[in-house]
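Anyone opening a protein record will find just a pair of labelled lines. A complete record is shown below as an example.
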Amino acid sequence: MVESQAVYEKVPVSTGDIWEEYDPITTEGEILGQGMCSTVTKARKKSEGPTGQQYFIKTIAADGMMWSADNERTGLELAGNLPGVVKCYKIYDRRHLQDGEKSCIFVLKYEESGYLESWLTENNKDGTYLSKE
């Protein structure tokens, strides 16, 4: 029996301003998703222009539950190369800044396939576990 082993990949971390490198592509503050302590929008790298790759931008505000940012970071780094797990490309950790909005921002792979919760609701109605395939 061969055991699979996840490849641990450090995600680059910056303390800079995400909007110096990315352009938002949602309309005037549109929020694609919102949870208990975070919001999700979309953006593109400025260097790739208006037809460049899209990314999800997940922002956890400092007045939210910042412990969740540490948990999210660890989980994404540990599982980021496994099939079915959203890839994290960069983290902007601005929690310790003296000036500006304190937050932790994750740049994630854009997936058009929708929300996991709704997919599970539609495809796991009988309560059985999902296949690894």
